[in-house]
């Protein structure tokens, strides 16, 4: 379950779009993203959404769908659940979003909590699960598959790759080079299996 990631700024996201297909890098590489700028559910984040002209544009959306009076209660979308709802005939929380609202969030890193390792929190002194930062090797940034509706977005999750499985039993649907168009196209369901995606894992402390 992804509850935290390192986003790009809106300006950086636009720079990435402007550099797309030009054979140059839009942003600089940052070895260790500053956790001060990390986002969590409820944050407003720059994403890439489809434009009327068939391209992409930067939009700022809130992370998390409302449920039972809570404004950002549902912030992850299981790809298996969304596809099943779509197969049942556009019924369910994710059916419309997965059918018409697929989009992309550019990130420098995302975090997952270890299912076995625990550390003492520097803030509270309590024992908490160790956080691991995941990145794509050598990448300045990479894309996570997301869905959006009514100004809000949710990160799509799937079974973990070999890189993530020792830490957590789910992971964001990470897109590799050239896969963004496929996620936005009609054959997006074929991207559900991420077993081949290689990521680096580093404990936060």
From TrEMBL:
**What's this protein's family per the entry?**
Belongs to the SOS response-associated peptidase family.
**UniProt keyword Cell cycle, yes or no:** no
Q: Name the PANTHER family for this protein.
A: ABASIC SITE PROCESSING PROTEIN HMCES, DC12-RELATED
Read off the InterPro entries from this record: SRAP, SRAP-like
Record-level Gene Ontology MF annotations: lyase activity; peptidase activity; single-stranded DNA binding
Top class in the EC scheme? hydrolase
EC number(s) on file = 3.4.-.-
Q: Which domain of life is it from?
A: Bacteria
Q: Does the keyword Amino-acid biosynthesis apply?
A: no
Write down the Gene3D superfamilies for this protein, in alphabetical order: SOS response associated peptidase-like (3.90.1680.10)
Its keywords, alphabetically, are: Covalent protein-DNA linkage, DNA damage, DNA-binding, Hydrolase, Lyase, Protease
Q: Name one GO biological process term.
A: protein-DNA covalent cross-linking repair
Name listed for the protein in its UniProt record: Abasic site processing protein
């Amino acid at each position: 379950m992804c509850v935290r990631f390192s986003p790009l700024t809106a300006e950086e996201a636009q720079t990435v779009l402007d550099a797309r297909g030009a054979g140059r890098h839009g942003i600089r590489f940052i070895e260790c993203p500053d956790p001060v700028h990390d986002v969590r559910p409820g944050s407003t984040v720059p994403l890439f959404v489809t434009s009327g002209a068939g391209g992409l544009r930067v939009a700022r959306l809130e992370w998390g769908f409302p449920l039972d009076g809570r404004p950002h209660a549902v912030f992850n979308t299981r790809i298996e659940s969304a596809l099943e709802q779509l197969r049942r005939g556009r019924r369910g929380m994710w059916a419309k979003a997965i059918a018409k609202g697929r989009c992309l969030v550019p990130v420098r890193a995302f975090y997952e909590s270890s299912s076995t390792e625990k550390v003492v929190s520097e803030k509270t002194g309590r024992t908490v699960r160790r956080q691991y930062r995941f990145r794509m090797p050598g990448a300045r940034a990479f894309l996570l598959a997301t869905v959006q509706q009514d100004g809000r977005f949710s990160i799509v999750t799937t079974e973990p790759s070999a890189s993530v499985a020792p830490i957590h039993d789910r992971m964001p649907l990470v897109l590799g080079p050239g896969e963004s168009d496929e996620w936005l196209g009609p054959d997006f369901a074929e991207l559900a299996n991420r077993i081949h995606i290689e990521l680096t894992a580093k404990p936060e402390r």
